[in-house]
Specification:
five-stranded mixed beta barrel; 18 strands; BirA Bifunctional Protein, domain 2; OB fold (Dihydrolipoamide Acetyltransferase, E2P); 425 residues; eight-stranded mixed beta sheet; alpha+beta; homodimer
Chain lengths: 425, 425
């Protein structure tokens, strides 16, 4: 019979020197020496060392334990203290061997192995760390926008028509009718500008993405915002700057351990992020194309770093032909748009812009693309009944975390990724 | 040409008496008197009165305006001040008449009318209010769990097999394969207990719910939590109590205006929520059934209010036969479970409990139900490799908001509801 005590986390152990405590966690590593056996326990806060007599507790790694004992300062132990005079209770089954050694400092496994065994593999501190950074980022995003008077919304993920882009949608059987997974909350968040003026959503979006690349996924977490009463896209860019700065600050504050473990370098977010018009960008690149290639994005990012010392760069004024029908054109330059991308470390991180807000402009835009009005009937309600100039943006959470952590594949920052080939675990 | 000024929200107007300001919003109401015309402007903070000469600005309601003028104290105006010497600029198209008068204090429209015209109808302060309460509730949920060391996760909404309940799932074409919309993040959040110990998710879940009732939806927002190293379900109930108290406090703090507009009465959340075992509940009800009927839930809620002065009641120990296969049985009473429902104001609000955590218990539970192991292979990984005793719960956001606001139908607290009949707008 083990005497009761209050659970102490591994990271708090040193503060309880001399006390009788309980620590719980996974058996990270068992090290049997001649005179003594060490159990290294892993909990959500870190590692704790438990010392037992030689030959003590022959248990496989990953078995879950509750240990009661006395905290003894020990400079060689993680955190500067260990648990001695320990009694050990096994809480789980005896663990089967994990797909690779979780106690090794580096990860000795390929990406497919990690993904196939995610429920166990992500216990490795280095593989878990990106999700701690992701959670902190989302918290920072929400806090920044809450501070600006935004309201959080939750919108439908199933829609009746594949209106927003037409391509790359998943079809669904909805009580015998055909429906589609939403590619974005675009139409809903615009409608809600009519209600709340400023809204955000942090939720899943779906793209039937047939490309098998390191940066595309079929489901990802979209951080969406939309706001009314803007002058033009520049007001949206200012809000995005605040959001990204809030995300970065929250990562520094809430995910310090993960940042250190990964050796991630957090960016400086300039008060004013440098900005280039698409036409200027093309000139700088010596190119003449309707869109930026990945190589263009990398070169422009390098330019921003060299010229402005900024890891962020706005490219504005994208050709209207490459933007969705609801995009607001640039006044006096109708082939260009009041839209932008935010490049971060060589990659497009955010797309956004000012939207059309007058019903007659929507009707003209749909007519110009030869689109019928009917599938857009619900969407057009907002504009028929009075909408202010507005705009917004969408930031892919997993892509942001990948850039922050230097991940070579977005699947390293996506919990249970879904793609062309992968639907499990 | 209108001189530039800084935008002031309606609610801040009185603080700017004597100043030259800009107010922006929707024309909530135009009132033409003999000697003067009033424009009542609605923005996200409330209403502002603008005074013009007689016959001024003959614009339809819901047109979006920017008004510049001087703030003059006026005790008869909303907020105690009005904008005089005003210049008016129209920002939107001239608005078409809304489906019903948005300026009337009550809502003169049926639920179907409200739902069909949601982008405009929800501009009515009474129809918008539940979503302000919902947003505050989610913020409170997250803050409470953040404070307890939980990590937020984002899990797949598309899964390869309909394992969790078998019934009521939406089927999907996934690159030519059959897949399903996730009914809950249950399996994923359990797996992540193995990584983070304590996790939560606030996201959409999907039920192909063939019932057309006032409390069922095909998509709703599930506030899910799961935590490891619990003694049993009582530790889960304590965390849920903290979450609900945090939600209530956040509503009081962040959604005061909405609470007042709706005359909603926030509950007291007792330090310890009263609890009844299922067997005791049946005795109290003079019944002998394997589940609680809606009438039972109402009677038990009344009992808790009368006996304990509590609007909340836990019912624990539900029959195992009525709970999912991963439910932990009650020690010494194997026909009962370590699970619970939380009743709130006559309705089940939350379901939760302790889960099995040993691989051999899962294998036995699946075998007992005649289920193959293969579709659960990914799920079972966690348990094979060591999992602590754990449990969790799921709270339906829209149902919570409906109870708080006294809504007669959950569609009044769901943004663009999706059900058997409704897939638009």
């Amino acid at each position: 019979m083990i005497r009761p005590a209050t659970r102490v986390l591994a990271a708090e152990l040193a503060a309880h020197a001399g006390e009788s405590v309980e620590v719980c966690g996974w058996l990270h590593r068992r090290r049997a020496l001649k005179s003594v056996t060490f159990l290294i326990l892993r909990d959500r806060s870190g590692l704790a060392q438990v010392v037992l007599p030689a030959g003590g507790e022959d248990l496989p790694e990953e078995t879950v334990l509750r240990v009661r004992g006395t905290v003894v300062p020990d400079s060689a132990a993680p955190g500067g203290a260990e648990v001695a005079r320990a009694e050990v209770e096994v809480l789980s089954s005896r663990a089967a061997p994990p797909p690779f050694d979780l106690y090794r400092p580096a990860v000795p496994a390929s990406l497919p192995t990690v993904l196939d065994h995610a429920p166990v593999a992500l216990r490795h501190p280095l593989l878990r760390a990106p999700y701690e950074i992701g959670a902190a980022s989302v918290a920072g995003f929400r806090a920044a926008l809450d501070g600006l008077g935004f309201t959080e919304i939750h919108t439908p993920k199933v829609v009746s028509s594949a209106t927003e882009s037409g391509a790359n949608v998943f079809a669904l059987d909805w009580f015998g009718r055909r429906a589609y997974l939403a590619q974005s909350p675009q139409f809903f968040k615009q409608a809600m500008v009519g209600v709340f003026e400023r809204v955000y959503e942090t939720g899943p979006v779906f793209r039937a993405e047939p490309h098998d690349t390191a940066r595309h996924l079929a489901q990802y977490t979209s951080l969406d915002a939309e706001l009314g009463f803007v002058r033009d896209h520049r007001d949206v860019m200012a809000v995005l700057r605040t959001a990204v700065a809030g995300m970065t600050a929250a990562v520094a504050e809430r995910a310090q351990r993960a940042v250190q473990a990964l050796g991630a370098v957090l960016p400086e977010v300039p008060e004013e992020i440098p900005s280039l018009h698409f036409a200027e960008a093309m000139e700088l690149l010596g190119a003449d194309e309707p869109d930026l290639s990945p190589e263009h994005e990398r070169r422009l990012s390098r330019w921003a770093l060299e010229e402005h010392g900024s890891e962020f760069l706005y490219v504005t004024g994208y050709p209207m032909a490459k933007r969705p029908f609801y995009t607001h054109p640039e006044p006096g330059r109708p082939a260009c748009s009041n839209s932008f991308d935010l490049l971060f470390r060589g990659l497009e991180l955010v797309t956004g812009g000012q939207r059309l807000h007058r019903i007659e402009d929507y009707e003209a835009a749909l007519a110009a693309r030869g689109e019928p009005r009917e599938p857009y009937a619900g969407y057009l309600q907002s504009f028929a009944h009075g909408m202010p100039p507005h705009g917004g943006f969408a930031l892919g959470l997993e892509r942001w975390t990948a850039r922050l952590t230097g991940a070579d594949n977005i699947r390293r920052t996506t919990l249970f990724p879904r793609d062309l080939h992968r639907l499990t675990p």
